[in-house]
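Work Package 3 (structural annotation) set out to generate three-dimensional models for the target panel prioritized at the project kickoff. During this period the team completed the workflow that converts sequence records into discrete structure tokens, so that structures can be stored uniformly alongside our sequence database. As a representative example, we reproduce one entry of 132 residues exactly as it appears in the project archive.
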Amino acid sequence: MSIRKINANNYEDNVILSVKPVLINMRSPLCKQCDDTEKLLLDIADEYGDIIEVLELSLELQPELTELFEVRSLPMIVMMTGGGITKKVYGVPNKKDFIEDMELETIRDFKSRGINYHPKRNYIPDYIRNDF
């Protein structure tokens, strides 16, 4: 599975109106670690593409969208549900911890029972908080 790029023209359809939770990789050509988050999210897309959407936002190409996310450092991955930011992860997370923090197995479990589960909003795990 590939990671789709979002921009101002397709943001509403791909993020706001998505019935699935959405993971967005914030990218910049100047961020070397962003390649590592892309590799992680490609794995996540392959494994969990049935329950989530994985997207990419180029910060330089979409400054009007960048402001919405209050980007303080890169790499940064954002989870959104129903158009609202649910979770933010700074840095390159460990895959196992990321799956747990994003509650991907819980989402899959609820989905298998016909229920749309959305993680708590605005949760940032303590171990990945940055003091800015």
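Confidence is low (pLDDT under 50) at residues 125-129.
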